[in-house]
Design brief:
EC 1.1.1.306, NAD, 11 helices, oxidoreductase, Quinone Oxidoreductase, Chain A, domain 1, Rossmann fold, alpha/beta, ADH-like_C, zinc ion binding
């Protein structure tokens, strides 16, 4: 029988979100219903509300979630009822050209649940990133459920579903940070602070955090930054070069998504160094660089999408590191809130007051 649960939706561009009743169908073949225990409030959810992703309103928001599998559909063998899972938006197909090449983290045909969740009047909802987890329960493809150790806090574990994984993966997977490397991270909100944590895990010897706000630089220090640069007071390129013997960093992670900060990242790296773009730009942004400089500096310019992660590989590993006390996922949780507090959490997030607000259910 379909279930009626409470969830947070965005009905139209710019309108405040609202808590309403949504209808969750029984899982069909390859699907699972998950009882959500916690879900982080991410900038992407705000982008959905503002029409920055698509105009397929109404949206069922939320995607950084952990919970317990309640039921599964026909043919599901990877998870079963009672499993504690982190939800992901990279349910790989196993058959596209990327998967066949052995690079499923780049899967070109990821999939979601086939059945829609709806409002009570039958209006179909568009779930954020194919998840829609600002809700007591949600319907997803079984491949979107990654089983992890149930000893983990749901509020901390769910953050691997997007922002924290994006940042850690940008440093470790995309940037290939290794022992002894110098790393600079430009922009130290949730994703940038996670990149700092990832660089620390990988054994970087020098981790330089750059931001305009002292609060965010303090966050970066707590996750392992060895040096900080307030870009209101210093030129970040000059400061990074000064802190790296005049050479620039081996890896620079740009976690803002603006042409100005990308240019800073480009010139703040060492010759043959790596720039990783994980900040999300808007469609109208353009970048201009002298082509001779691109040619002459060598190295690599990379974009990191979801931290180039493979959830089945990365989520359990990072949860194990968390339970060992080596990765402070709890440190990303600024506050725990209810479903009715999401709109206010968006405002705090825009003001830079929190790393992550987390909805607890």
């Amino acid at each position: 029988m379909p279930q009626r649960v409470s969830g947070v939706i965005a009905r139209a561009k710019g309108e405040p979100v609202e808590v309403t009743t949504i209808v969750v169908p029984d899982p069909g073949p390859g699907e699972a219903v998950v009882a959500v225990q916690a879900c982080g409030v991410c900038h992407t959810d705000l982008h959905y509300r503002e029409g920055g992703i698509s105009d397929e309103y109404p949206f069922l928001l939320g995607h950084e979630a952990a919970g317990v599998v309640e039921s599964v559909g026909e043919g599901v063998t990877t998870v079963e009822p009672g499993d504690f899972v982190v939800l992901n938006w990279r349910a790989v197909c196993g058959d596209c050209r990327a998967c066949r090449k052995g690079s499923p983290q780049y899967c070109f045909d990821t999939h979601n649940a086939r059945q829609p969740m709806t409002l009570e009047d039958g209006t179909e909802l568009s779930p954020a990133l194919g998840i829609g987890s600002f809700a007591e329960k949600t319907l997803v493809a079984a491949g979107q459920c990654t089983k992890v150790d149930p000893a983990a806090s749901p509020a901390a574990a769910g953050l691997l579903g997007c922002g924290v994984m994006a940042g850690i993966g940008a440093a470790v997977n995309t940037g290939g940070v290794g022992r002894g490397d110098s790393v600079a991270v430009i922009g130290c909100g949730g994703v940038g602070s996670a990149a700092v944590a990832g660089a620390s895990l990988a054994g970087a010897s020098r981790i330089i955090a750059v931001d305009l706000e002292e609060r965010k630089l303090d966050w970066a220090r707590s996750f392992g930054a060895t040096h900080t640069v307030n870009a209101r007071e210093q030129d970040p390129v000059e400061a990074i070069r000064e802190l790296t013997g005049g050479f620039g960093a081996d890896v620079v992670v740009e976690a803002v998504g603006r042409p100005e900060t990308y240019e800073q990242a480009f010139y703040a790296r060492d010759l043959a160094g790596t720039v990783v773009l994980v900040g999300v730009p808007t469609p109208e942004m353009r970048l201009e660089l002298p082509l001779l400089d691109v040619f002459g500096r060598g190295g690599a310019l990379k974009s990191s999408w979801y931290g180039d992660c493979l959830p089945s590989r990365d989520f359990p590993m990072l949860i194990d590191l968390y339970l060992q006390g080596r990765l402070d996922l709890d440190g990303f949780v600024s506050e725990e809130i209810g479903l009715g507090d999401v709109e206010a959490a968006f405002a705090r997030m825009e003001r830079g007051e929190v790393l992550r607000s987390v909805v607890r259910l």
